[in-house]
Design goal:
15 helices, 340 residues, three-stranded antiparallel beta sheet, mainly alpha, DUF1759, Guanine nucleotide-binding subunit alpha-12 isoform X2
Length: 340
């Protein structure tokens, strides 16, 4: 009896299978390696179901719950401008799939080149095996040089009008342009560092400031540093930002110019001569015009106006109309003229 109990206690049994068996009953059957166990020895336990499908499939990014109003687009190159080309190249790099073919990207590039010079330059590589890559390389050499963009921005700043005294808005705009130039040069590496440390750029930009602020910048730089006076674009930009914060940004309204009222024009008298002995004296007026006839003899005026004959001393005619002088011969006239 004891041996039977020991044999029954240490008899090997098959453990529960790893994969559950789905059935209509609520218990799992445990099988023995030797024989089928009686139902009285089956230990009931809860069924373990398989994980849901949503846990087996990796989750995807949730879709946006709102509709996009505006998305990125490809700008057009409408003029030979480095900043426009920079925006177009940025859009091509971000929006085009790198796996697209060269012909497809080349076609997109040509559609947005509206400048004849840039379009001709890109069309030169239409039969190349990689037209997009070569066209972008050629366009970079012409429009994509960072130094060209920096120098163009510097020229645009120099073309700005000079800052007037108390013009806070103008000083703020000038400070922003210089700050943008400094930020561009700082991202250009060693080439931009050479332009940042160039003192001649600062001297040219200082000419845009009033004389008082020009001297104030020099005093600020000399007080902060010992030794010879030196400064660069970064120092000038930082000082400009501090000055712009202290200045009011209100736009100065020009004072109205007081114009003097026009003086009334005096009345002018006009004398009209109708004959040798009478004249009409007319006075012009806005209210009414009344002609005044004045009788006046003008013997003296006519005598002063008519020349005296040099041959007969008559005041009634000229020597060219003198009958006595005209009766003389040519030789007599010449001799008379020589005697005079």
């Amino acid at each position: 009896m004891v041996s039977f109990l020991l044999h029954f206690k240490y008899q090997p049994r098959i453990t529960q299978c790893t994969q559950p068996i789905h059935c209509q009953v609520n218990h799992c059957l445990v099988l023995s390696s030797s024989s089928v166990q009686p139902t009285s020895n089956v230990q009931p336990h809860h069924l373990t179901f398989a994980p849901p499908l949503s846990q087996l499939v990796p989750p995807t990014a949730p879709l946006s719950s709102y509709r996009r109003v505006e998305g990125p687009s490809f700008p057009d190159l409408t003029r030979e401008d480095e900043s426009q080309y920079l925006m177009l190249k940025m859009a091509l790099s971000n929006l085009l799939d790198p796996g697209e073919s060269e012909k497809y990207k080349y076609h997109i590039l040509l559609d947005h080149l509206k400048v004849d010079q840039a379009r001709r330059l890109a069309l030169a590589y239409v039969y190349a095996p990689d037209p997009y890559t070569q066209a972008i390389r050629a366009l970079d050499e012409r429009y994509g040089q960072p130094r060209q963009l920096a120098l163009k921005e510097l020229r645009a700043i120099m073309e700005m009008p000079a800052i007037r005294i108390g013009d806070g808005r103008g000083l703020d705009q000038f400070s922003l342009r210089v700050q943008a130039l400094v930020g561009l040069l700082q991202t250009m590496g060693s080439e931009g560092l050479a332009e940042l440390t160039c003192g001649s750029h600062v001297e040219r930009l200082l000419e845009k400031l009033p004389h008082e602020q020009f001297c104030q910048f020099k005093r600020c730089m000399s007080s902060n540093r010992s030794g010879p006076l030196s400064y660069n674009l970064l120092d000038f930009s930082n000082w400009l930002q501090q000055e712009a914060r202290c200045q009011p940004r209100r736009e100065r309204t020009p004072q109205p110019v007081r114009q003097k009222p026009p003086l009334p024009h005096p009345l002018r008298n006009t004398t009209i001569l109708h004959g040798s002995k009478t004249a009409s004296h007319v006075t012009s007026s806005k209210a009414q015009v009344v002609p005044i006839i004045v009788s006046q003899s003008l013997p003296n005026t006519l005598s002063e106006r008519c020349p005296v004959c040099a041959y007969c001393n008559s005041a009634e005619h000229h020597v060219s109309k003198c009958d006595d002088f005209l009766q003389l011969t040519k030789d007599q006239r010449i001799n008379w003229i020589k005697e005079q």
